[in-house]
Hints:
Blueprint: H1 2-5, E1 11-17, E2 29-35, H2 39-52, E3 56-59, E4 65-67, E5 72-78, E6 86-89, E7 92-96, H3 101-110, H4 126-132, E8 145-151, E9 157-161, E10 180-187, H5 193-210, H6 226-231, H7 235-241, E11 248-249, E12 252-254, E13 262-264, H8 270-287, E14 297-299, E15 305-307, H9 308-313
Parallel strand pairs: 2-5, 3-5, 4-14
Antiparallel strand pairs: 1-2, 6-7, 7-10, 8-9, 8-10, 11-12, 12-13, 14-15
The chain binds flavin-adenine dinucleotide.
Amino acid sequence: MAELAAKKIGRATFNELLSYHNSWQIGGSADLFIEPESSKQISEILRFVLKNDIPLVVIGQGTNLLFDDAGVRGIVLKIGDRMADIQISGNVIVTGGGAWVPQLARQSMRAGLTGLEHCIGIPGTVGGLVMMNGGSQRKGIGENVTNVTLLNKEGRLRTLKQDECDFTYRHSALQGTGCVVVGVELNCPKGDIQTIRQEMIKDLQSRRHKFPRKQPNCGSVFLSSEEMHKTVGPPGKIIEAAGLKGLRVGNAEISSQHANFIVNLGGASSLDVLTLIKQVRQRVRTRIGFELDCEVRYVRSDGKLMPAHIQADSI
Ligand SMILES: Cc1cc2nc3c(=O)[nH]c(=O)nc-3n(C[C@H](O)[C@H](O)[C@H](O)COP(=O)(O)OP(=O)(O)OC[C@H]3O[C@@H](n4cnc5c(N)ncnc54)[C@H](O)[C@@H]3O)c2cc1C
């Protein structure tokens, strides 16, 4: 890894604490942490990793990730503000994979483009959002995506059209492929700036009111599904109905403000969060008869990513 760090591959640091790079503020250190600034640099890193069989984890703002307390025995690649260019021409927006989602939403609003109002309060990067097909109000970013530019795990540049990405609820075909999203093209119809602005203000006000803001968290922990929504309601309601608001393990707690949020009260460990996830799943299964799966991804120390409930069930 020292050989790679010595090359011109962006900002590289050894033993970087991952708790500085995710919104839960949890996790040990990465052997090597790199913030690249070009596709060429990423391609070089990907080729090195493949050749030397080194674990690699790609992250954006870490707002949907739970890192293990042991950190990552390998390389963590952060696609962030060094690859965050946003360009708008007519109805077309072209953005770097590291662009900050609220910034993208704001710029589209200023250009009088509609469709991204639901993204204004999502604190991740465009790459992370596309990967997760994230969104709110039961929408997903995939609805507006026309092309995704990525580097495959061999380090080759490819462009996928919307239909090749297979966007479904909080899912895309890019998950688990080891690719790095470096650019996204979106198409948004023209709209009325004041209406778009009002819609965004409404969304932000509702988030301020509903979500815990002062304690570190990772947004919604559990996934919703249409069937669940129709019969028993969204995960937050179900967890609350099971009497689990305020349930605490170590320094992790089910938020008393919104039951689909787990907050770090200070110094929570990954094990605290996983144990809490396990307990919530068990109690909801017994009391309400529904299986709650996680939206949040757990990052094992060998660099493998999985929905956090899979790891929680194994402890
Ligand atoms: C307060 C709060 C509110 C939230 N609200 C919402 C919401 O309303 N809707 C919603 O959908 N989500 C929400 N989230 C979750 C999160 O913000 C989104 O999933 C976001 O899109 C993740 O982006 P990120 O850059 O943080 O990705 P990360 O958490 O860093 O990574 C998420 C996944 O994407 C992969 N990834 C990240 N960047 C790249 C890249 N460039 N190339 C390849 N793979 C990549 C990672 O490997 C990982 O699998 C919220 C989170 C918080 C903390």
